[in-house]
Design goal:
By secondary structure, this protein is of the alpha+beta class. It is built from 5 helices and 17 strands. The protein has one domain: Fumarylacetoacetate hydrolase, domain 2, CATH 3.90.850.10. Strands 4-3-14-7-8-11 form a 6-stranded mixed sheet. The radius of gyration is 17 Å and the shape is globular.
Length: 227
């Protein structure tokens, strides 16, 4: 066995509702998947899906606090359905896509909006706006064999008990199956991958001390406090 220069980092994992841990490999995020959010951001809702990524170690679990990130004064919340991939595949057909899903969770795609705006204006990548430390609080994963494959249901986010975002999974422009099929044309999806499927309208800024509570009907919850 090769000697490592330093001790390898422990795998990132998310608790599974019925017991066990889901080891996270990659996190793919869908941009602009709810029409109202697309309109509020001033974009064209007819565009095909596009993707950006977060590192696995951006995950925050167990309702733990999220440190306010450096180099921003405009940190935004985005509540999302998270798809946990449990079976490898590439060039997956839409009709077979859900066979690759292990389960679902509720997540937050936290965004340094000012950095994202500057990157957009300059035609640069969004990495530092989306893929920073602690930028992906995620709740417990519910296996699909227990809850099915939710295609409708309320998705909401409250800050300090006041509702900020509300939508329905049925309003997604690209369904989970379509998203998996499309993404798998570009990369091989593998067990351990997560897909964050976009956010409804109502995104907005949070500050230190704010408590975020997200919920998706039939899926679960996510909670974090900004410190």
């Amino acid at each position: 066995m090769a000697d490592f220069l330093f001790e390898p980092y422990a795998p990132v994992s998310i608790p599974i509702a019925r017991g066990g841990l889901f080891a996270v490999r990659r996190i793919y995020c869908v941009g602009r998947n709810y029409a109202e959010h697309i309109r509020e951001m001033g974009n064209d809702e007819r565009d095909p899906p596009f993707f950006f990524s977060k590192p696995a170690d951006a995950v925050v679990i167990g309702g733990r606090d999220m440190p306010y990130p450096p180099q921003t004064s405009d940190l935004h919340h985005e509540i999302e359905l998270v798809v946990a991939i449990g079976k490898d595949g590439s060039d997956i057909a839409v009709g077979e896509a859900l066979e690759h899903v292990y389960g679902y969770a509720v997540g937050l795609d936290m965004t340094r909006r000012d950095l994202q705006g500057a990157a957009k204006k300059a035609g640069r990548p969004w990495d530092m706006a989306k893929g920073f430390d602690h930028s992906a609080p995620i709740g417990t994963i519910e296996p699909a064999e227990s809850i099915g494959h939710p295609s409708a249901g309320a998705i909401t986010l409250s800050v300090n008990g006041v509702e900020r975002q509300r939508g329905d999974l049925g309003e997604q422009i690209w369904s989970v199956a379509e998203t998996i099929a499309y993404l798998s044309q570009f990369v091989t999806l593998r067990a351990g991958d997560l897909i964050m499927t976009g956010t409804p309208a109502g995104v907005g800024a949070v500050v230190r001390g704010d408590v975020l509570d997200g919920r998706i009907e039939g899926v679960g919850t996510v909670r974090t406090k900004i410190i």
